[in-house]
Amino acid sequence: MADHTAVPLIIDRAHRLGRSIIAFYLLSGAAWLIVSSLFWWLNTAQAFAPNAWYAFAGVPWLTYGRVYPAFTNAFVFGWASLTGLGVALYFVSRLCRLSWRAGLLIFIAGIIWNLSLALGLWHVLGGGSTGRELLEINPSISFGFFLAAVLIVTWLLVEFWAYRNQLRVIPLWYLVAALLCFVWVFTTGQAIVNYWHTGGPVQPAIQSWYVNGLYQLWLVPLALGAAYVLIPEGVQRPVASLPLARIGFWGYGALAVWAGLGLFLGGPFPAWMQTVTIVANVLLILPVLALFANFHRTLDGRYDFAGANLPLRFAMTGFFLFVAATFWSAFISFRTVDYIFHFTLGMAARWSLLLAGFVTFTLMGAVYYAVPELLGRRWLLPGLLRLQFWLAAAGVGMLALDQAVGGLVQGFGLADAKIEFSAVVDIIRPFLLVQVIAVGMLFFSYLLFGFSLFLVLCFRCLERVRAAAEPVAPVETPAEVSVA
Amino acid sequence: MKRFTPYFLGVLGFFLLGWLGMVYYPYMAFAELRPDRDATTNEVIPPGLPGTAVQGFRVYAANGCVDCHSQYVRDKNEGSDIDRKWGARRTVARDYMNDGDVFLGSSRLGPDLTNVGARQKDAAWYYKLLYSPATVNPGSGMPAYRWLFTTRKIAGQPSADALQLAGEDAPPPGWEVVPNNDARELVGYLRALNRTYPLPEVPEPKE
Amino acid sequence: MSLESSEPNRPYGPEPGHSPEAAPGRSPLDAGSAPVPAWFLGVLAVAVFWTGAYLFTYSGGFDSSVFDFKPKYGAAASGPAVPPDPKEVGRKLFSANCITCHQANGQGVAGQFPPLAGSEWVNSDATNRLIAIVLKGLQGPVQVKGQAYNNAMQAWEAQYTDQQFAAILTYVRSDWGNTAPPIPPEAVKQVREQVKDRKEQWTMAELQKMPAQDVAKNAAAPAAKPAAPANAPAAQTK
Fold this sequence. Notes:
The complex is a heterotrimer of chains A (484), B (207) and C (238).
Chain A: H1 16-48, H2 64-95, H3 103-128, H4 139-162, H5 170-195, H6 202-235, H7 242-256, H8 271-283, H9 285-299, H10 305-308, H11 310-333, H12 335-341, H13 345-375, H14 382-415, H15 421-427, H16 429-469
Chain B: H1 4-31, E1 36-37, E2 44-45, H2 51-62, H3 116-119, H4 123-131, H5 133-136, E3 149-153, E4 175-179, H6 181-191
Antiparallel strand pairs in B: 1-2, 3-4
Chain C: H1 38-57, H2 86-96, H3 99-102, H4 120-123, H5 127-136, E1 138-144, E2 147-153, H6 162-172, H7 185-194, H8 204-209, H9 215-219, H10 231-235
Helix pairs in contact in C: 2-6, 5-7, 6-7
């Protein structure tokens, strides 16, 4: 079995505090992954059979409408954000001359983030949801995310300006941009929609912009930054083209911020806003093609390296899913296609490909890459890791395909006004069932992921305990030579 | 790209451009929406929701109704909503200008609710739907929301708004199911969802 | 594989003297300088062209009051509004005051308030008399549909505008089985002018002496009428 540990990027002297903090982010992220995917699995079961015993129909805090926000918020703010932060911190601190003097601050930020999420989800399940996607957590609680993010970003900016660090390598462009954008996107969305509680049509406009900003300007750049480390590292070749990388980065940044209103196409917004969003969604194909061309040249045919190198495998699969997500997004943006697909499962396919697919796979790859160095231990049970990969890949593939086809069927049903709505609900039931199966596979895959992490952590702790318990070697004196 | 400052300004610049176009400008433009007063009937168009309905926002949000129901009607060339009689015309920005919470929704596992108050006027129908969706719409994907109701012993006469239930949903003899405050507020909100008034900027489409 | 540091406060970074800048290409993270492929530039050119075309065709002139991306309602997508159906408007106005006496079903109250459904006063071509009644009121004995009534109807001229009267009367003349033609606001205006000096309510005798004039037909302004109310009600969802 090939070595799953990474070749160190630069010879570095690890700082114990930094390692521990990053490990804390990654581990809490993994824990939230399991929690959110459990909610997700329950949610798909409820969609399929709302009044079955396993749908907990009589339990108010487990009703569909509360479990769904619990799942999305835990996934985005728990798994994706925390792991993304850990990965970003890891790569940024390894690629730059950052000091961990303010490490305690980062640790506190992580604690605040976790606490806010836990408290927020409890409140949502208890009936305090605000009803707006990814803004469901009560604003007084989600302020914790803002606080934590400000702490981290301030630290980062100080480090960059004070120590005149440079963005020498491509991954840094994305990781730093992600951290900067997050604060602004989050603040705008929460302030306008939740704090000032602005009513009227501006509310959904900003809300869709905010959701898109979280996905495309926070999570996707984090994952792209990680991909830009994992893929070149995996094949030990430099990234092929700097000009292409620049086009990819700036093109993506210029376009992604306009692409949010796709969530509410056909809605009560001026025609120009909707057209601009459609154009942005379609044009996003270009930077993604640039990235794809770049990676393809970098790999230079060495796709088989993914067989041995697990982080590379995750990163490559993730990137293919990203390309698929971008094309799908562009496809369903066209008004003629949107006529069919809007409001259907087809829109969830975009989420599945982008978040459960690209972001999750790439971040997992990064975790597989980083943890051996952070915890000083290689992964145990490599077979388990391979199984985890295949389960996740099959799960996402099945899910995306099912949602795309299901969306098509549902869409044609909805588009024909002569078909009763209840008939449409009947038609899509098999697709809802496949969803349950696919998400179940994902849940088990994530369980394995968490379990592997847990094993590594346990063994690491055991080693430390053992090291601490070893008797101190007696001092050698000429008179007392002890045979070790 | 080596130096941080130009990079930072570049990222800021592109982001700011999008923020100005998709956040700032709509915020300003929508703030200028004004209602009309109908010359003939003297009504304010669009009318706001009655006060009791506004409390319904909270219940609608808390139970995540927006995750399955949408609340906007698309134009004929963008969707089949008008053909499905979910509205006589598309909804535009002014239809929502008086709503403190706008639940446009992006999923139709359940039907659109923009004009549900115009389609169903009977509160008892809503209560029954919330208590037992399967009896009102067989095969429905909607879960039951029984915690919005109280089952209690009939004290003297049955209450006026006790639900008429049959079969296995019916309470034991001598007991009745009545809606809680949450159910009342929610149903008040749903019954007020009615955007069939005409707006000058949206002529109703002819066939 | 122990990575314990003996100097906990040293930052990450290369060993002194081993700066990555000194040896470009040493690390896989350094980027090469392969040029942008020609096919990509081609796709870019097509995309720019498409963007311009799409953006300027479907944005409604970048006007925030335009919602329809394919304007089909006539000049300047926020075009002239179709006025609301006068029958519907009339029904709303009728429901404010008139139903108190004449009832929602137009049947009135036997012996007290005359019906409007099937009433010869409502349906006759002498629309000036009908308008005069609502403007100035009616008192004393009156015969409607063979029944005698003796009550007082107040003058309503100060309460409603011409448009509102026109809407109410159009509604009254087209509901409950009545099928009389609508009454335009101009007709109301004309009659209001004619009777403006009158101070008291009419009596039946005075009304019958009034020369019959179909002011509705005469004053009917051509075409641009709130079009065929016959079509609109069907489209109106309740």
